[in-house]
Amino acid sequence: MKNYLTGYFAILLLSIVACSSRTDESTDVFVSVAKLKIQRNDYILGETLTDKQKETARRNAVEAPSPGTYKFKDYDLNVVVDEKTDRIIIIYERYETANREKIRELVGDLFFVFGEPTVMAHDKTIYWAFNEKGKISEQQYRQTKEKKQRFKTLATVKLDSSHKIMGDDGDDQNRSVYYIVSSEPLLKLIERRNH
């Protein structure tokens, strides 16, 4: 009987340690992302919602994109939150019919907040990438690529437009544009935890 109890307590202790290490890993990633202070309006990626934000979430809930999360809108801003911790995992805005001025306004705002981007691709996509130390410059990005090293990011801001962002393409038709603030390590962690 004594051996049985000793074995039982050993298994119990191991499971508690395993669960707490997963919680610590989760907390560590959220804290690392939150320290970057990547923010849209009053919402900070990785940070816990305030009581006021939780009330906004209750009043403006929309269907959650995946299990273990909830989603809400605050005007045009969409916020996806981890159900267990009330921490923000995605922030985005999407405009299906935006004119050129709206896109320029959005791009200007993102440049004002985040500075020069890390990468511009195909005149339609802009990335701001962040590691633990902060925003990764274009020069740091290029040097990493030239050395064929793995490019490791903690979070990104991505803006994508259906038409060229800069310059005048002579086309006055409406276009779609969105930006998304997210953290791949956070998203992978949430996915592992929910499966």
Describe this structure in words.
There is one protein chain. The chain starts with a helix and ends with a helix. Helix 1 packs antiparallel against helix 5. Helices cover 39% and strands 29% of the residues. It is of the alpha+beta class and 195 residues long. Strand 8 and strand 9 form a beta hairpin. It contains 5 helices and 11 strands, in the order αββαββββαβββαββα. It is globular and about 45 Å long.
Task: Please outline what is shown here.
The chain is an alpha+beta fold.
* Element-level helix/strand string: HEEHEEEEHEEEHEEH
The main pleated sheet reads as: 9 strands, antiparallel
Q: Which value, in Å, is the CA radius of gyration?
A: 21 Å
Please state the overall shape, judged from the principal axes of the Cα atoms: globular
The parts where pLDDT drops under 50 for at least 5 residues are: 1-23
User: What is the count of structural domains?
Assistant: 1
Average pLDDT reading: 85
Helix residue percentage: 25-40%
Q: Name the beta content range.
A: 25-35%
**Could you give the distance between the termini?**
36 Å
By secondary-structure content and strand pairing, the structural class works out as alpha+beta
Number of strands: 11
Tally the helices: 5
